[in-house]
Amino acid sequence: MRMVDIIEKKRDGLSLTDEEIRFFVRGYVDGTVPDYQASAFAMAVLFRGMDSRETATLTDAMMHSGETIDLSDIPGVKVDKHSTGGVGDKTSLVLGPLVASCGAKLAKMSGRGLGHTGGTLDKMESVPGMRIALKESEFKDQVKRIGIAIAGQTAELVPADKKLYALRDVTGTVESIPLIASSIMSKKLASGSDAILLDVKFGGGAFMKDIKQATVLAKTMVEIGKNLGRDTRAILTDMDQPLGFAVGNAIEVIEAVNTLKGKGPKDLEELCIKAGGILLTQAGIVPDETEGEARIEEAIRSGKGFEKLCEFFAAQGGDVRYLEDTSLFPRARFVHEVKATKEGHVERIDCLAVGLSAMRLGAGRATLADHIDMSAGILLKKKVGDAVKKGDVLCLALTNKEGVGDVLKTLEGSFVLSETEVEKKPIVRRVIGREV
Ligand code: URA
Predict the structure, then answer these.
(1) How many H helices and E strands in the chain?
(2) How far apart, in whole angstroms, are the C-alpha atoms of residue 25 and residue 47?
(3) Ligand 1 geometric centre to CA of 375 (Å)
(4) Does the annotation count 199 as an active-site position?
(5) Among residues 83, 183, 193, 414, which one is catalytic?
(6) 58 with 50: CB under 8 angstroms?
(7) What is residue 21's three-state secondary structure?
(8) Which atom of ligand 1 is nearest to the CA of 174?
(9) What number is the average pLDDT over the span 115-120?
(10) How far is it, in rounded angstroms, from Cα 30 to Cα 25?
């Protein structure tokens, strides 16, 4: 078999055989297929697509390109949750403790944040002492003992995706549904959970710009998961504005704490209640989502969810005093107010611009080697649907850097105002893969 023939076949719009797909994945991992052929292949897939059999085979080949984790010695249904990436997305830090406090077992492996969407691991590390590199045995013990662990993926997990995703990132081939679906699902399947909930974002700050495209991606992933024997469901959620008010690291942890204490932003709380209802159903803890949602609301009201957050951070070495008293987190030296220059109603907030601004203020990294300033970020003061008067503060920019005038300008421009009133819409628009 020759890689060039496989590339040409896909370029001409034909379906590849399972053997051809496995030949590519094996060859790319062992180095016999060079980067230039892998990029030509990825571009051919981007233009020509893959059918569901090809996508499933690609996922399976990638999943088995390295080690897989066996969670079967942990009793009960193990659940996992994944977001396709959003700005201000601290959902895992709220949802994880909530479902664990209701008896679910959440075993989650996460990647690092790169570009405009920060990673959960980075946010967790804003709490001193917090360890995200857990040995497999530690990871499993913790899930068994307290019902939740969130750790970094080991280097041995899905090496094919590590190489291919990095290549796609620099060859304009990220936005392909079969490539995104196989990348995400190969990692989720290799991490060993029985049930998976995917949070597929759509809107300005997401890979999928509209709900139609996001639906196709969600259905593709749900089908892959089901074909490989896992209860996989997806929610489609709005990313036409950052989630919650905080975009950064320490400030997102503070917002997660506030949400677990019932004092969080409405959109984040609504997302966690809905997603929690689904996860508890998948875990077999409740008969239906309505009952699941009621349990999650109760876990917020009673403080059980917050207690679980503290237990989870303590188990991974985190200094829980920071969660109990969030004023201990270091503050950024400068707090700039970004003010509205005209009046109107917020129609949308450009997530990409907000995410990139947060990065330029120090909160994110452009390359994996970059250092993150945990205290930097953006605090929104207005959200979609809010009325704005000239001179109102739209958001606060927190930074230790000097000379950020152009970032403040970008932030002001990222609030798109309408002259007429704007309706506030629910954050979860659709659920896919629900068993009825
Ligand atoms: N997230 C992933 O893990 N892979 C993709 O291809 C896109 C988003």
Answers:
(1) 17, 13
(2) 19
(3) 27
(4) no
(5) 183
(6) yes
(7) helix
(8) 6
(9) 72
(10) 9
Burial class of residue 315 in the structure, from the number of CB atoms within 10 Å of its CB (0-12 exposed, 13-18 middle, 19+ buried) = middle
* Length, in residues, of the chain: 436
**Contact status, residue 150 vs residue 132, Cβ threshold 8 Å:** yes
Q: Is 307 exposed, middle or buried (0-12, 13-18, 19+ CB in 10 A)?
A: middle
In this predicted structure, the answer to whether residue 383 has a pLDDT above a threshold of 70 is yes
pLDDT at residue 436, as a whole number: 42
Q: Does the active-site annotation cover 194?
A: no
Q: H-helix or E-strand containing 349?
A: strand 344-349
Please report the DSSP string for 195-220 in residue order. Answer: EEEEEEEESTTSSB-SHHHHHHHHHH
* Separation in Å, CA 244 to CA 88, 238, 266, 304, 320: 7, 12, 7, 21, 23
Query: 239 by DSSP, 3-state: which?
Result: coil
Which of 168, 274, 295, 382 is catalytic? The answer is 168
Identified catalytic residue from 82, 295, 304, 336: 82
CA distance 139 to 105: 12
Centroid of ligand 1 to alpha carbon of 89 (angstroms): 15
Cα 65 to averaged position of ligand 1 atoms, centre (Å): 17
Quote the pTM value: 0.93
Q: Which residues line ligand 1 (CB under 6 A)?
A: 84-85, 165, 174, 179-180, 183-184
Phi, psi of 89 (to 5 degrees): -85, 95
Per-residue pLDDT at 281: 97
Which residues touch 266 (CB under 8 Å, ≥6 apart)? none
Instruction: Give the model's pLDDT for residue 191.
Output: 93
- State whether residue 82 is helix, strand or coil: strand
What are 214-237's pLDDT values in tens digits?
999 999 999 999 988 899 999 999
Active site residue 168: yes
* DSSP element (H, E) containing 295: helix 289-302
Ligand 1 mean position, distance from CA 180 (Å): 5
264: burial class by Cβ within 10 Å (0-12, 13-18, 19+)? buried
The dihedral formed by the CA atoms of 213, 218, 219 and 221, expressed in degrees to the nearest 10:
130
How far is the C-alpha of 244 from the C-alpha of 126, rounded, in Å? 18
Which CA distances in Å does 415 have to 16, 61, 248, 418, 436? 45, 43, 18, 10, 40
